[in-house]
Amino acid sequence: MAQSLAEINIHLIFSTEFRYAFLNAQIRPHLFAYMASLARKQGSYVYEIGGVEDHVHVLLTLPRTITMAQLVLFIKKESSKWLKRKYHIASFAWQGGYGAFSVSSSKIDVVCRYIKEQEKHHQQNSFQDEIRLFLKHTRLSFDEKYLWN
Question: In the 8-state DSSP scheme, what is residue 17?
């Protein structure tokens, strides 16, 4: 091909360090808008961002010019600095790892709906149970002792 084309949709999930509840309802909309602008700056298209007090879900495209690790590092690093500066949360940090799960184009609407309903979802399910379910569904092998801080 003369042109490089790619559509790689990723459901990205990451948590605050130790799952501290830093992301209150007043902060989240501003944080999500800022995170979307960071992703766009890297060439990503953002379908949806949502989450609760201790973690974030992002449905976006992986740009063809950078790696997943580079994209996640950029979003986490810059949003962490922004939260510390704008909301004076000196102790804020994201957990070191993340989950990245591929999403078929035919499932974009389903995943967007899931992300929008995070507050409702987490009234019944913990973050840990959610991650275990993702890992089980995708058949990724993991050692539980390395999943959490």
Answer: G
